[in-house]
């Protein structure tokens, strides 16, 4: 089938030979494309919108032929959410909570922990009414309910959002898994300590807590001191090691204390060289071994992951590592391996391999998915198939029988090996009745949901089958045969009828009607012609209307369209003729036409025709300008002159007073022949013959404007000649060195001088200055706001200094509200001479002190201010000789320049006068920087270059945005991101004064906006063992969570992330 545009053009080709009054029924049917052949399936790939008889590609392909029942619904089988037999229950990943799920599965499989938690008092669960949902409150209640669901739920996986929300964790951000484990056990231990049952109060210690001693021996006197310490897990360094035994051996190895790390011996009463080592005293039933894969990189200030292969056994004998031999056995069996898949410490995925304590089978827990390992063996599988960041990949070492090797394992859980016992109480853990009641309630909800989903699937299938039969019945009846009755159905409705995903509404054809209540010819691309039999069945089943049949073809719309199209064609011919006539030599007689109107007259004429056509349409109809009969050449023409379009022809040369515009450049004189043709299209257009005079009022106003410009030029020239030095900034007085020959200087606002110079330079573009405005420099009491010393020290940037003779001129030319004078009084005695400076009016000390107080307050209470951090190396700036950055923007360079002062001979663009023989001023490069003086406008350096008040950033210097209430610690974190220097390696100072108090605010430390803070970075310390010793010493003295409440610990868990990595560093 031909494209839509061709079909629409072909529908109106007959208008070239047929007048509107000669239209017959055959022409109407051509306009509505009634007789276009229908398309056949298989030949037409998609629906032809230009053909109302094309019923192919409207969605019928889905329904023709046999259909699978699964296509009638999008509901998954609810049984896929059901727990499989002999498979554990998974946990939903809430976004980035896979690390939480792994630990929960490990703790669930700790039978003693699960059994003890079930014994915790829970009055809320025991008294719960099954008619409402159970909502746990405390951490123990959440764990009880979660473990009970994991044990006896019918679901394939459950949602741990209740516990995660109670802990305050961010589900969208992955936290540090090791820190979460430590903090959660500490929080659980504190919660259990409040239980009445004494066996539950020390549950965490009994299961996970061991003890070792820090043993220090003085090399001088041999005195030995042992400091006990508890541990819940052993943190083992894996860098440089290949197996678990090496890691444990390094953890217990002897360490020498010498140099600055010497030990203070109480027996010797002085610092002595000593040796220190860790001695294991007792081990818990559950031994957690943290493999320190996530370490802090001091160079980047971030954590990184060590992808080192570590070999570890299934059975671990800890007896060789104990100092004191115990009667009990110290052989441990591997019960869980926690895996981090990924090469980054800030992303990746956590899974857990856990051994079932009852059957000995290994399971892989990957959030919702649970997989049982074959042969009761641990199989790490694809968890080790990750890409390394280095150029070469290390091969996985071979493992002996009973050993495993991993480069992603970050925690190993070993359980103390026990003798096989037939006591079922030690192996079986029963869910208490009050918890089982809650589990049964949840299982009942799950079964109801499964039944509801199954019913929905059945209803969807039944509905789909009925729809299938209906489509097969009606689609064959849709095509309308030649000579038989027909009706029109909207194409969009037919598509929705064949689309099973949307509900079928009643048929609405009201938007296709013209102003005469019939089918509009412009809508034929959105409607289809169907047989009367098919239309009757569709309206009976779905209703709607109004119904459009063969009598709905609108002859009036077709006649009006014919008239408009014929006029458009005539318009193109007239456009060519008028264009040729306008290009001829202009005559002295004719009519004035606006140039903008002349450029867009064809568009205006077409719009008039379109408006006539639009009045006969329904408000929902499309404009003819979008149809196939739109002249493409005309469209391009209109777009080119869109900016000159005018709404009404020839109104662009009418002035505000209703007369002919005085702007001759905006109008053109055309011949009488041209105007006659234009008049046919615009009979109401304003007419101006060539003898028409321009508006007299406009001419008068134009002359007045020219006279005012001449007066402004004369005024500017007169003021410039009288104040030439002030205009060129020549021979300006200064306060640093009082000028000879005068005892007083006058002060005016710098704003006045700048505005006056603007007027002098461009008198026709700027308004003349009439008022000096000295009240800007005075307080409400009429006193002066500045002292002589403050003006010398920088506050002169708002004032301009004048000579007495200049003041006389200004007083005569401008309105002066209040003169301000600085007097220099010299007193000479036989011994010495003194100079005093006074102002008139006198200084207002009260307002001056208030001004200084507010100024200091602004320096202390700022927000979003800029400070500059300059890195120094061995007390030398990183930027060589303070060289500014070469990539400074050009706008800064432009602001640094000051235009050269003009001398008498320089020509001013606004004046035609000049003085011969004048020479340009030369730059004086021999002047030193110390000769810079404070003038009335700015700080002038030698050579006429203005000193910029903008801070010039040096190479290696960076700007930071800070606030006064921000702490020094927060500033150091910003500096770490900008310079990659860790906070504890930063030495900050301002003007030689060190900034050391991390908890103090920047405002209290004297950090003000635009100040420069020097940063000196210490070399990274490689003795991580010393740093760890200091941290362990701090833990022994206070304990990590000694003074924290349950709610505070929950907040700490919420604050996990990279900030937790600073805990070790800062304590160290």
UniProtKB/TrEMBL annotation:
Alphabetical GO biological process terms: protein deubiquitination; proteolysis
Residue ranges annotated for the USP domain, each copy included: 89-417
One Pfam family linked to the record: UCH
PROSITE patterns the record matches: DUSP, UBIQUITIN_2, USP_2, USP_3
Cellular component, GO, one term: cytosol
InterPro entries: DUSP-like_sf, Papain-like_cys_pep_sf, Pep_USP48, Pept_C19_DUSP, Peptidase_C19, Peptidase_C19_UCH, Ubiquitin-like_dom, Ubiquitin-like_domsf
Region of interest (Disordered), ranges: 609-633, 881-922
Record key words, sorted: Cytoplasm, Hydrolase, Nucleus, Protease, Repeat, Thiol protease, Ubl conjugation pathway
GO molecular function, one term: cysteine-type deubiquitinase activity
Domain (Ubiquitin-like) ranges: 962-1013
Catalyses which reaction(s): Thiol-dependent hydrolysis of ester, thioester, amide, peptide and isopeptide bonds formed by the C-terminal Gly of ubiquitin (a 76-residue protein attached to proteins as an intracellular targeting signal)
Main subcellular localisation: cytoplasm
Enzyme Commission number: 3.4.19.12
Top EC class, one word: hydrolase
Keyword Disulfide bond: no
Polar residues bias: start-end ranges: 619-633
Composition bias, Basic and acidic residues: 899-910
UniProt subcellular location: Cytoplasm; Nucleus
CDD domains named in the record: Peptidase_C19L, Ubl_USP48
Domain DUSP as annotated: residue spans: 459-554
Name used for this protein in its record: Ubiquitin carboxyl-terminal hydrolase 48
Top-level taxonomy: Eukaryota, Metazoa, Chordata, Craniata, Vertebrata
């Amino acid at each position: 089938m031909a494209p839509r545009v061709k079909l629409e053009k072909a529908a109106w080709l007959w208008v070239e030979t047929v007048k509107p009054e000669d239209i017959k029924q055959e022409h109407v049917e051509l306009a509505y494309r009634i007789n276009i052949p229908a398309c056949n399936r298989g030949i037409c790939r998609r629906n032809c919108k230009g053909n109302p008889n094309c019923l192919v590609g409207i969605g019928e392909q889905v329904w023709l032929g046999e259909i699978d029942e699964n296509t009638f619904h999008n509901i998954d089988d609810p049984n896929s959410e059901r727990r499989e037999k002999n498979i554990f229950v998974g946990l939903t990943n809430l976004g980035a909570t896979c690390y939480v799920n792994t630990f929960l599965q490990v703790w669930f499989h700790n039978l003693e922990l699960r059994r003890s938690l079930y014994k915790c008092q829970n009055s809320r669960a025991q008294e719960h009414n099954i008619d409402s949902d159970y909502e746990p409150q405390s951490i123990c209640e959440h764990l009880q309910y979660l473990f009970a669901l994991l044990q006896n739920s019918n679901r394939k996986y459950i949602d741990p959002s209740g516990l995660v929300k109670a802990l305050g964790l961010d589900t969208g951000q992955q936290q540090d898994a090791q820190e979460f484990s430590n903090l959660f056990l500490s929080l659980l231990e504190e919660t259990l300590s409040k239980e009445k049952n004494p066996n539950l109060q020390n549950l965490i210690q009994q299961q996970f807590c061991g003890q070792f001693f820090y043993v220090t021996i003085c090399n001088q006197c041999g005195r030995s001191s042992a400091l006990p310490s508890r541990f819940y897990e052993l943190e083992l360094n894996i860098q440089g090691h290949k197996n678990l035994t090496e890691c444990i051996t390094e953890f217990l190895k002897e360490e020498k204390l010498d140099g600055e790390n010497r030990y203070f011996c109480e027996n010797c009463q002085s610092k002595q060289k000593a040796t220190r080592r860790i001695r294991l005293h007792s081990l818990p039933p559950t031994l957690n071994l943290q493999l320190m894969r996530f370490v802090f990189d001091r160079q980047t200030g971030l954590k990184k992951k060590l992808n080192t292969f570590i070999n570890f056994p299934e059975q671990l004998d800890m007896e060789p590592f104990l100092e004191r031999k115990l009667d009990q056995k110290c052989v441990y069996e591997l019960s869980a391996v926690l895996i981090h898949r990924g090469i980054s410490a800030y992303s990746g995925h956590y899974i857990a391999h856990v051994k079932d304590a009852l059957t000995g089978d290994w399971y892989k827990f990957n959030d919702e998915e649970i997989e049982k390992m074959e042969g009761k063996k641990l199989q790490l599988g694809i968890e080790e198939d990750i890409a390394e960041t280095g150029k070469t990949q290390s091969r996985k070492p071979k493992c002996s029988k009973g050993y495993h090797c991993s480069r992603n394992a970050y925690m190993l859980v070993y359980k103390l090996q026990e003798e096989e016992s037939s006591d079922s109480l030690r192996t079986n853990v029963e869910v208490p009745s009050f918890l089982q009641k809650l589990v049964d309630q949840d299982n009942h909800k799950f079964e109801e949901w499964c039944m509801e989903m199954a019913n929905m699937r059945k209803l969807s299938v039944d509905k789909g089958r009925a729809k299938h039969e209906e489509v097969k019945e009606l689609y064959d009846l849709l095509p309308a045969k030649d000579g038989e009755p027909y009706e029109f159905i909207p194409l969009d409705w037919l598509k929705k009828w064949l689309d099973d995903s949307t509900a079928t509404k009643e048929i609405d054809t009201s938007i296709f009607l013209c102003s005469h209540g019939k089918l509009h010819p412009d809508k034929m691309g959105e409607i289809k012609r169907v047989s009367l039999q098919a239309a009757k069945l569709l309206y009976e089943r779905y209703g709607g209307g109004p119904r459009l049949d063969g009598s709905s073809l609108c002859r009036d719309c077709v006649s009006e369209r014919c008239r408009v199209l014929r006029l458009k064609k005539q318009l193109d011919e007239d456009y060519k003729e008028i264009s040729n006539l306008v290009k001829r030599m202009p005559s002295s007689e004719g009519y004035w036409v606006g140039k903008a109107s002349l450029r867009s007259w064809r568009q205006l004429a077409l719009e008039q025709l379109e408006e006539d056509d639009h009045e006969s349409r329904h408000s929902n109809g499309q404009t003819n300008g979008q149809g196939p009969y739109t002249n493409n050449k005309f469209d391009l023409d209109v777009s080119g002159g869109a900016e000159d379009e005018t709404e009404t022809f020839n109104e662009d040369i009418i002035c505000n007073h209703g007369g002919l515009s005085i702007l001759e450049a905006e109008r053109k004189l055309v011949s009488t022949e041209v105007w006659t043709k234009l008049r046919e299209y615009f009979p109401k257009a304003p007419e101006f013959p060539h003898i028409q005079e321009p508006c007299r009022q406009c001419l008068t106003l134009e002359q007045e404007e020219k006279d005012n410009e001449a007066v402004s030029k004369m005024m500017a020239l007169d003021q410039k000649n009288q104040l030439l030095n002030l205009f060129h900034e020549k021979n300006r007085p200064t306060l640093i060195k009082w000028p000879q020959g005068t005892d007083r200087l006058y002060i005016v606002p710098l704003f006045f001088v700048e505005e006056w110079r603007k007027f002098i330079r461009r008198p026709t573009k700027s308004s003349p200055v009439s008022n000096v405005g000295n009240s800007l420099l005075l307080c409400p009491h009429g006193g002066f706001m500045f002292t002589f010393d403050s003006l010398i020290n920088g506050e002169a940037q708002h004032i301009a200094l004048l000579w007495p003779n200049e003041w006389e001129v200004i007083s005569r030319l401008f309105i002066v509200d209040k003169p301000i004078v600085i007097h220099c009084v010299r007193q000479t005695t036989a011994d010495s001479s003194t100079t005093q400076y006074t102002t008139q009016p006198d200084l207002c000390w009260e307002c001056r002190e208030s001004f200084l107080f507010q100024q200091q307050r602004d320096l202390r209470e700022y927000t979003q201010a800029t400070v500059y951090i300059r890195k120094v190396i061995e007390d030398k700036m990183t930027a060589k000789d303070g060289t500014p950055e070469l990539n400074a923007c050009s706008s800064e360079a432009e602001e640094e320049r000051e235009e050269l002062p003009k001398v008498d001979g320089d020509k001013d663009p606004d004046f035609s006068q000049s003085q011969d023989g004048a020479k340009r001023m030369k730059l004086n490069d021999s002047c030193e920087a110390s000769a810079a003086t404070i003038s009335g406008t700015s700080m002038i350096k030698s050579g006429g270059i203005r000193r910029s008040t903008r801070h010039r950033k040096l190479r290696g210097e960076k700007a930071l945005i800070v606030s006064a209430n921000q702490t020094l610690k927060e500033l150091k974190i910003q500096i770490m991101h900008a310079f990659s220097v860790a906070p504890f390696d930063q030495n900050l100072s301002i003007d030689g004064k060190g900034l050391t108090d991390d908890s103090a605010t920047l405002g209290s430390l004297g950090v003000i906006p635009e100040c420069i803070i020097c940063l000196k970075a210490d070399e990274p310390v490689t003795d991580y063992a010393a740093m760890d010793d200091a941290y362990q010493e701090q833990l022994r003295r206070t304990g990590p969570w000694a003074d924290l409440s349950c709610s505070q610990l929950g907040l700490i868990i919420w604050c996990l992330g990279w900030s937790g990595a600073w805990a070790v560093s800062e304590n160290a």
